[in-house]
Amino acid sequence: MNKTPSEAQLFANALVNALAGFNSFDIYIAPVFVALDRVREVVSSSNIKLAAQNMYYED
């Protein structure tokens, strides 16, 4: 599901809060390109890792 940068930031905030204290597994979030910076700001202080989506015109 793609979100606007603002929606992605709100979602990342909710995810960070909901998953606080879960350290037994790796959590990755891969927002759309235009939301990477906002989501990075939110998850940088958590154990959630940021990933980027790969987009190719033939996929």
Describe the structure.
The protein has helices at 5-18, 36-43; strands at residues 27-29, 48-50. It has 59 residues and is an alpha+beta fold. It has one domain. It has a two-stranded parallel ribbon. Strand 1, helix 2 (36-43) and strand 2 form a beta-alpha-beta unit. Helix 1 (5-18) runs parallel beside helix 2. The longest helix is centred in the first third of the chain and has 14 residues, at 5-18. The chain is globular, with a radius of gyration of 12 Å.
Write the layout of secondary structure elements.
Blueprint: H1 5-18, E1 27-29, H2 36-43, E2 48-50
Parallel strand pairs: 1-2
Structural class: alpha+beta
Mean pLDDT: 90
User: What's the helical proportion of residues?
Assistant: 25-40%
Q: What is the CA-atom radius of gyration, in angstroms?
A: 12 Å
Structure summary, number of beta strands: 2
Domain module tally: 1
Cα shape = globular
Strand content: 5-15%
Distance between the termini: 17 Å
Assembly type of the chains comes to single chain
Main β-sheet description = 2 strands, parallel
- Give the strand line-up of the largest sheet: 1-2
Q: Output the helix-strand order.
A: HEHE
- Count of DSSP H/I helices: 2
The unreliable regions are none
EC number: 5.3.1.1
GO molecular function: triose-phosphate isomerase activity
InterPro entries: Aldolase_TIM (IPR013785), TIM_sf (IPR035990), Triosephosphate_isomerase (IPR000652)
Organism: Fervidobacterium pennivorans
